[in-house]
Amino acid sequence: MTALPEASTIWLDGALVPWHAASTHVLSHGLHYGTGVLEGTRAFATADGPAVFRLPEHLRRLDLSARMLRMELPFGVEELAKATVDLVRTNGHRSCYLRHFAFLGYGAMGLDMRSSPTVTAIASWEWRSQLPDARGGIRLKTSSWRRTDPNTVPPAAKATGPYLNSVLARREATDAGYDEALLLGPDGAVSECTGENVFAVRDGVLRTPPASAGALEGITQDTVLTLARDLGVPVRVEALLRSDLYAADEVFVCGTAAGVVAVRSLDDRELPAAPGPLTERLRTAYEAAVSGADGRYRHWLTYVE
After folding, report:
1. Where does 36-179 show beta strands of DSSP type E?
2. Entry's SUPFAM superfamilies (predicted)?
3. What does pTM read for this prediction?
4. What residues have CB less than 8 Å from 230, skipping those under 6 apart?
5. Can 82 be counted among the known catalytic residues?
6. Distance CA 220, CA 233 (A)
7. How do residues 118-172 score in pLDDT, each as one tens digit?
8. In this structure, what DSSP letter does residue 295 have?
9. 256 touches 286 (CB < 8 A)
10. Mean pLDDT of the chain
11. Quick check: helix, strand or coil at residue 104?
């Protein structure tokens, strides 16, 4: 595991501060109780300079997540968008990963969250895919850990606390020699991976689990569904069983930090094609969209310069 590549500056509560000055108190509420929300966003190099991909959608989801947790963000979506652009420009990135983060800070301890102020931060750094560079596909393992019931923690909220579930599942998979974990929902249906949505292709139809399976409604997932429809590919958002993935012609995962990544095997069962032809078409279309090469999707890009 490589160290985090530091940038010079972090945006913290309305100000650009030096990287190592962006600190918080050890008794912050979010550190002890997981009362925080986050977004992973990326800026990509384009012919017209760096551009943040689907920034408004990410920031609207951050605001929605905060409201679901009954946290009040001190900054609006437009203010956070401007701060994001200012930060990328200040740090001089051509491309980077962005972490938008809001959490309850120092003010009170205990389960009553009402007396703790909200701290808001944006960080950027140069970060490659969080999955191995595997053009030939990754190896998945179904985890013994399961996604929590959607009535326990709302899957539409991208909150910090529930990520412990993903951390445990990823550790189990990597310790066993796999690249990533597949999580099932409480009923045994396919949910998602630890940080990516999952897709299956069979007989030319693209399928992905719904939010009711405990899966986050991913922005990259929505991007892939849009690209597929524009390519004339039939898509279905519906319940999937693990056996549906075993029987698929192709399986791939997608997420902001990963991009579009083919799956080579699941539970030591080799897939017929990795990457399959539709996976390759969608990966190519995704890369053209995020880089600005496909002008039809320039509305998804917020340019820094």
Report:
1. 36-44, 51-53, 96-104, 118-125, 138-146
2. D-aminoacid aminotransferase-like PLP-dependent enzymes
3. 0.94
4. 285, 296
5. no
6. 17
7. 999 999 999 876 676 566 899 999 999 999 887 777 878 999 999 999 999 999 9
8. G
9. no
10. 94
11. strand
Give dist(CA 40, CA 84) in Å, integer.
12
138-290 under CATH 3.20.10.10, yes or no = yes
pLDDT of amino acid 98:
98
**Whole-number Å distance between alpha carbons of 231 and 290:** 17
Which structure tokens are listed for 260? 């579009």
Q: Tokens standing for 101?
A: 């983060």
Q: Are 302 and 85 in contact (CB under 8 A)?
A: yes
Do the domains at 9-125 and 138-290 have one common CATH topology? no
Domain edges within the chain: 9-125, 138-290
Q: Which residues contact 244 (CB under 8 A, 6 or more apart)?
A: 190, 200, 202, 207
- The architecture (CATH level 2) of 9-125 comes to 2-Layer Sandwich (3.30)
Q: What is the dihedral of CA 99, 100, 103, 106, to 10 degrees?
A: 80
Q: Enter the tokens of residue 300.
A: 């998804």
Q: Which of 40, 30, 15 is nearest to 103 (CA)?
A: 30
Contact 74, 118 (CB under 8 A): yes
Which is the catalytic residue, given 42, 141, 147, 158?
158
pLDDT tens per residue across span 157-206: 999 999 999 999 999 999 999 999 999 999 999 999 999 999 999 999 99
Give the residue carrying structure tokens 């703790």.
Answer: 116
